[in-house]
Write a structure and sequence with these properties.
The protein has 139 residues and is α/β, with parallel strands linked by helices. The chain has helices at 13-24, 88-99, and strands spanning 5-9, 27-32, 50-57, 60-66, 81-84, 103-109, 116-121, 127-132. A hairpin with a 5-residue loop joins strand 7 and strand 8 (127-132). The longest helix is centred in the N-terminal third of the chain and has 12 residues, at 13-24. It is elongated and about 55 Å long. Residues 2-130 form the Glyoxalase/fosfomycin resistance/dioxygenase domain.
Length: 139
């Protein structure tokens, strides 16, 4: 069994996942509502929205879609996407990119459990945690 996060957006899915693919690396597979055999069941103004997207980076997968009126969306609450990184420079890079235009709940800093840790919500409304337990660059 594998457990994967699935995010729901309200029209920002493609922009968010293009950003995540550039930031995290990996391959995007995207399908729009217009490409679905059920496209006739979706109002035309929502055909360009993302029905399903999958970002595959190594053996990690992050998936998402946009919402449509039949399935209202209240935002992402009560969870975070957690990134476990191997070194401080990578934690700093991710923190800088994800926090730009977003809201920081806890700035990137040393904690009693990690060399660096941060909590933030990116400009797309997705909550993230960045955790670097041991800096592999320090040997």
């Amino acid at each position: 069994m594998k457990i994967h996060a699935y995010l729901i957006f309200d029209g920002q899915c493609e922009a968010a996942f293009n950003f995540y693919a550039e930031l995290l690396g990996g391959k995007l597979e995207l399908m729009r509502f217009a490409d679905s055999p059920e496209a006739g069941e979706v109002p035309a103004q929502f055909h360009d929205r993302v029905m399903h997207v999958c970002l595959t980076a190594g053996d990690q997968v992050l998936m998402a879609s946009d919402t449509i009126p039949q399935y209202p969306h209240e935002g992402i609450k009560g969870c975070s996407i957690s990134l476990q990184v191997d070194n401080v420079p990578e934690a700093e890079r991710l923190y800088a990119a994800l926090s730009e235009g977003g809201e920081v709940q806890m700035a990137l800093q040393a904690t009693f459990w990690a060399t660096r840790f941060a909590m933030l919500t990116d400009r797309f409304g997705v909550p993230w945690m960045i955790n670097c337990v041991v800096d592999s660059q320090q040997g």
